[in-house]
Amino acid sequence: MVWIGALVLAFEAARGWAGELKPELREGSWTHTGIANILGEGGGTRVTLKRAGDGWSITHTHVSHFLQRDGGPREMKTTTQEEGPYPVTLEGDVLTVDKGEGKPAERYTFLCNEEYLLMPAAVRRKPGEWALVRPGLDLVIRCQADPFTVPLGKATVRDFSAEAEQARQKAEAARPPEPGKIKPVYWTPPSLAVTDGGYALEQGTTAEKELVLCILDRKAGVGPLAPKLQLAFWPRGHTTLSLLESEMLPRFENGRMDCVYGSGPRGSY
């Protein structure tokens, strides 16, 4: 495992060049650029954080580029839609967006520096433990030991959002049906939980030589361990979390659970 030790040292040395990513609010704008098709159609989202009196606000600006298809000459059109500004609060590493008007508040794990904003972010809370919170998802990944020290071992994943939905549905199913109404059918929502899994730290395959932590699980609780989640640690200092289980991929764009925004002219990916 000598190569892992050497790569960890190189990774730790490089990650501070853009300033450490921290759960701290700062004024600025960061952009996430989506994937464009062969015709150049695509879009992106710009996130702007500003001080608002004694608090903070967040604004999302969505930009779409598409070819006009109404029978006339083809021409690239651009539309812009703005959401906000909405008040935000930061507690620990979780940012809460208050959308008002009776809408539920949105919670995201959050990291930021001058160059990057991660929302939601895969946050390392202590050695061997990462968390990611976004609307409809609340995950905590725990490894038996710090993978940067012990590259192979056991791991578990708690999916608190699925647990909460299961509890809600059980409570609904336990209630007596209202007169004239059909009793709702209880179903088990999909979960990313791992109760008897493992982890493996590996070298990445891209030119940036990131480290990759695979979280392994048994299919239906039996059989060999297979990759389910993947944490990628990039020399730029951020961590990305992807889903590798094919049947649950529709819940996430390209399997990615996090989102990285950049402050440069091209934004981030």
Layout of secondary structure:
Layout lengths: L1 H13 L13 E6 L8 E11 L2 E13 L8 E16 L2 E4 L8 E4 L1 E2 L3 E3 L4 E4 L2 E6 L2 E7 L8 E8 H15 L19 E10 L7 E8 L6 E9 L5 E5 L16 E3 L7
Brief sketch in words of this structure:
This protein has 269 residues and is mainly beta.
Physical arrangement of strands within the biggest beta sheet? 9-10-11-12-13-14-15-16
Write down the overall geometry: globular
Separation of termini?
A: 31 Å
Please state the average pLDDT score: 79
Helical coverage, percent range: 10-25%
Total number of β-strand segments?
17
Number of helices: 2
C-alpha-based Rg, rounded = 21 Å
Order of helices and strands: HEEEEEEEEEEEEHEEEEE
Uncertain spans: 1-18, 265-269
Name the structural class. Answer: mainly beta
Strand content: 35-45%
The major pleated sheet works out as: 8 strands, antiparallel
